[in-house]
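Work Package 3 (structural annotation) set out to generate three-dimensional models for the target panel prioritized at the project kickoff. During this period the team completed the workflow that converts sequence records into discrete structure tokens, so that structures can be stored uniformly alongside our sequence database. As a representative example, we reproduce one entry of 135 residues exactly as it appears in the project archive.
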Amino acid sequence: MGYRSCVALLLYGTPDKVDMVDNMLIQRLDPEYDRALFERLKQMRDEEGERTILWTFDDIKWYSDLDSYKDDMFRWVDDINEAVPEQERNFKLAVEFVRVGEEYEDNEVAYSIYADNTLCISRKIEIPNNFEWRT
């Protein structure tokens, strides 16, 4: 048994830019294992001219190859955003990453420059609705 993490990776923006990054990622992924994993866990939504892709990994060994894919996505998003002068930019393209490890302090959160900070880590106590008080 090895070290495990829960991970979420969120990519969103105009469909053409999101598809561009998604296609670059598919080409970059290891075809024998990682490509199938990312494709199986991919959830996509289109809403009001924006495309969102979410990958969630529960109980995964998050090793350096997977971390390099995340780093590549951040670099690609930054490169695409920087290629267009700001006054001509009529699109939003962003990526967010959250990883929660087994250890209490082993958490990682990263947002690209135009991110809405949608993903976050939260600690809370939940009390069930059917909780009965003792008298």
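The two ends are 45 Å apart (CA to CA).
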